[in-house]
Specification:
Blueprint lengths: L4 E8 L7 E8 L2 E6 L14 E11 L1 E3 L4 H7 L5 E2 L8 H14 L3 E6 L12 H7 L5 E5 L4 E4 L1 H6 L13 E4 L5 E6 L1 H8 L10 H13 L2 E9 L4 H4 L7 E7 L12 E2 L3 E9 L28 H13 L3 E6 L2 H15 L9 E4 L5 H9 L3 E4 L2 H14 L1 H5 L4 H6 L4 E3 L10 H10 L16 H7 L2 H6 L17 E4 L16 E6 L2 E4 L5
Parallel strand pairs: 1-4, 5-12, 6-7, 7-8, 12-13, 13-15, 15-16, 16-17, 17-18, 18-19
Antiparallel strand pairs: 1-2, 2-3, 4-20, 8-9, 9-11, 10-11, 14-15, 20-21, 21-22
Helix pairs in contact: 1-6, 8-9
């Protein structure tokens, strides 16, 4: 049997046997073989075999275990105004972009409002929003995805009234009379404001293809959609994506899905159910044992203990993997209590997931690991919001935020993520931040939580694929698995951690086909 492609050079397989190789052979869509040195696979060469000497390093394609592929595609499409702090860092730029959009669009939807980073933004009150757009709908989504602000026209178009009640798991801001006041918090309420905007949308293929291209340019070959709306399923049909997707459907009061767990194929598969135990630290609704320093306030979880247990039991009984957002340690405690009751105290093999786990305590990680629960963590919180965390909660909390080292010390397998579009999906940057704990202002937060580069690579490849129940087909360069791989300008394990984010992804392959980069010779 001959190979279609042989890559020779530095190969980091992320497989234990062998962890490194000098050559890799691909036949069709799959890895055919790996060899110890550059000449080890010469016996697989045929007349049509392409043999390429790689200057940099070959890695498995990166896996973004907690992202929002559809959401990212939508907010970066021309239909929305991108005001994220990674795009518009100042308040003046944000306000100018919103004003221009209102003046030129019949409906204005903006994404990325973040006053903690874009200093000087006004309070987005209903009266301010109505003043900006008195005659057309205006919706501004917070960068975290946990709040939206809307004017009176948008409220009417969404079918809301001044007395619309809060849905389970979400809430609306209200004035002294109890009337809606222009803000919705958490997905259950947010969807009531924005859900109708998807009606009539039938062709988002260009946005999906552009999103795939952005992911491939970062070396990403698999990504999750952690807030999947089943109404979007037809939009994914017949789109030649170059990024594998794993879908997590949002839980609903019906407590059921219209498909069975595992529906789909190796490209797109629906595997889980997503819930939110608390909100975002940046929108004031973190459920934690410590207060916001400026106000002394603490926030309760989104659900009562009984509600979260009911949701979890219903979907778990139908065979679903569960993934629950929990930033604060009080929210984590609620999730652990509910899931331990659901499991009857027995360890689970379904890879139940706690998302972000931002202020999870050491004993909570120990308890989670004993129950078979895994965590996905968000190191970019440190990079972008390190100083903000210090201001909001103090140095102790900031130093133990995103405690990846603590999680790993229990033996738990974890993934790293960007929660895109909150921050841009960029695994190399994530790996650098996890290893250095440095903010973009040059401060280190919690150096005791630093992890090694090889462990960080696992958390963006094989361990992330394991969380997505895809480690049997991708995540490592193992014979028989898909040839999903990235060629990077240098081996991340052979450069200083702070240099990793400056490495480039020169080429990306999905199932043996190059989907990013200049054609290789």
């Amino acid at each position: 049997m001959t190979a279609d492609l042989i890559l020779r050079g530095r190969i980091v397989t992320m497989d234990d046997a062998p962890p490194f190789a000098g050559a890799l052979a691909v036949r069709g869509e799959r890895v055919l073989a790996v060899g110890d040195d550059r000449d080890a696979l010469d016996g697989l060469r045929g007349p049509a075999t392409r043999v390429i000497d790689v200057d940099g390093c070959v890695l498995p394609g990166f896996v973004e275990a907690h992202g929002h592929f559809l959401g990212d595609a939508t907010v970066q499409s021309p239909a929305l105004v991108d005001i994220r702090p990674v795009v518009l860092p100042t308040a003046d730029e944000v306000l100018a972009a919103i004003s221009e959009a209102v003046a030129t669009r019949p409906v204005t939807v903006c994404n990325g409002w973040e006053p903690l980073l874009q200093k000087g933004l006004p309070e987005p009150t209903l009266s301010w929003l109505d003043g900006l757009a008195p005659a057309s709908p205006l919706i501004i989504m917070h960068n975290s995805g946990h709040a939206v602000f809307f004017n009176s026209v948008a409220m009417r178009q969404a079918g809301l009234t001044l007395t619309t009640p809060d849905p389970p798991g979400g809430r609306f801001s209200r004035n002294s009379a109890g009337e809606l006041a222009g803000a919705a918090y958490e997905p259950a309420a947010i969807s009531m404001v924005t859900g109708h905007l998807r009606e009539g949308v039938t062709d988002i293929a260009p946005s999906l293809l552009a999103q795939s291209a952005r992911m491939n340019a970062r070396g990403v070959t698999m990504m999750s959609e952690m807030a999947f709306d089943p109404s979007a399923r037809p939009l994914l049909e017949n789109v030649p994506l170059t990024t594998r997707l794993r879908l997590y459907e949002v839980s609903t009061p019906a407590l059921e899905s219209d498909v069975e767990p595992g529906t789909g194929d190796d490209m797109i598969r629906q595997i889980g159910i997503k819930t939110w135990a608390d909100g975002s630290p940046w929108t004031g609704n973190l459920a934690a044992s410590f207060p916001y320093l400026a106000t002394g306030e603490r926030h309760a979880p989104n659900y009562s203990d009984a509600e979260l247990l009911e949701i979890s039991r219903a979907y778990y009984a139908r065979g679903w993997q569960l993934a629950c957002h929990a930033n604060g340690d009080d929210a984590v405690q609620q999730v652990l209590d509910a899931w331990e009751r659901m499991l009857g105290g027995r360890p689970d093999d379904r890879r139940l997931r706690i998302e972000h786990a931002s202020s999870m305590r050491p004993e909570q990680f120990e308890r989670a690991h004993a129950l078979g629960i895994t965590c996905s963590l968000f190191p970019d919180h440190i990079y972008y919001w390190g100083e903000v965390l210090n201001e909001l909660f103090g140095p102790d909390v900031a130093g133990r935020w995103a405690p990846i080292g603590t999680a790993l010390s229990t033996g738990m397998r974890v993934s790293l993520h960007n929660d895109s579009p909150v921050t841009p999906a960029n695994p190399l940057h994530n790996i650098a931040v996890a290893a250095t704990r440095m903010s973009r202002q040059g401060h280190a937060f919690g150096i005791g939580e630093r992890i090694g580069v090889r462990q960080a690579l696992r958390a963006q490849t094989i361990d992330a694929a394991w969380q997505l129940h895809a480690d049997d087909v991708t995540g490592s360069l193992t014979p028989g698995k898909y040839a999903d791989l990235a060629i990077v300008s240098a081996d991340p394990t052979r450069v200083q951690p702070e240099e990793i984010e400056h490495l480039t992804v020169d080429a990306t392959f999905l199932a043996g086909r190059q989907v990013h980069g200049d054609p290789l010779d």
